[in-house]
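To: structure desk
From: M.T.
Subject: fold request, one chain
Message: Could you run this one when you get a chance? Sequence is below, nothing fancy, just the single chain.
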Amino acid sequence: MTDSFPILGFDHLEFYVGNARQAASFYETFFKFTNTAYRGLETGSRKVASYVMEQGKIRLVLSTALNSDHPIARSVLKHGDHVAVIALQVPNVVDAYQHVTARGAISAERNSAGIAVIPPTLAEDESGLLHYAAIHAYGDVILKFVDRQDYRGVFAPQFQPRHSVQPGSYGVAPCANREAGLQTIDHLVGNVERGAMEHWVKFFADTMGFQLLVHFDDAAISTEYSALMSKVVQDGSGQIKLPINEPALGEGKSQIQEYLEYHQGPGVQHIAYSTHNIIETVTKLQQAGVEFLHVPTPYYKELEARIGKIDESIERLAELGILVDRDREGYLLQIFTQPVEDRPTLFFEIIQRHGAQSFGEGNFKALFEAIEREQALRGNL
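Reply: Done. Structure tokens follow.
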């Protein structure tokens, strides 16, 4: 596979939130991220405050508006706290932008929250030059291209370094043993309305040269009550994997339809973080207070017969609620958090791959039944 233009990897994900200071404390306390940079009134940013949170090669930016008229404030009012920007690092922003807009990407309109896309732009300070541009993706999500080759600063102009040890305690460099072992963004899942999945698969294929990796229909992803369909697109290097889900008809309301109603439109459903040791990572996260979906004990009784020998203790996996699946390349371990917002929208996946390149198809039924139990408690099934 070859890309239409080179993509070096995920640069960052930007969340729009109602209170970035509190959100930074949440991700620091529960998920063990380190606050490495900040912008706000003190740094000359008069309209937006942002906190850069890092762990392994993962970078999150938590941004909040400083007045109610700002587009970020309107976006949060509509969607709640959410992933608003998917930023990809590229070696040449102008080439990437011209390529995608010549092939149909929208570059001159505002989304429903009033946030405009960005033509190639140059930001400069004493640390160098930062190049970036942005286009529309599904829903109100912005897809951003970033080139950092000529920038040596902590993140971007107006940001200042800020290292934290614990919530409210800053000034000390981050320490690896305080982290949870999260390494990279393995994949990023979007939910779109029924009938729109094919459109967005074609969008990523036409504008960015992404190719279809795998397709799951409603026969593969269904339970007694609900179903969905999913296609996974990825770039040529395999670093950027973007599953796209849409709801399918079922007896009840699918988790995708629930998301669409509470998010008020398409958006990022969950982020999968990779780890080298899922047992250690999940243990740390549970001890910190992260809540995961419950997996019933019977799932583990026939696990070894279904997936074969693995390095990890099945008893320990059962204690933590970690799922296991195997494909031709190997096996994977995965677990899913409860939604991290009051709205049943955004959640996270923790995944460890032992060669497997799939997405846990063998776990779909157990996972969806677990999600449906939570939907029933919310009165939304």
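Reply (cont.): Confidence is low (pLDDT under 50) at residues 165-173. Let me know if you need anything else for the meeting.
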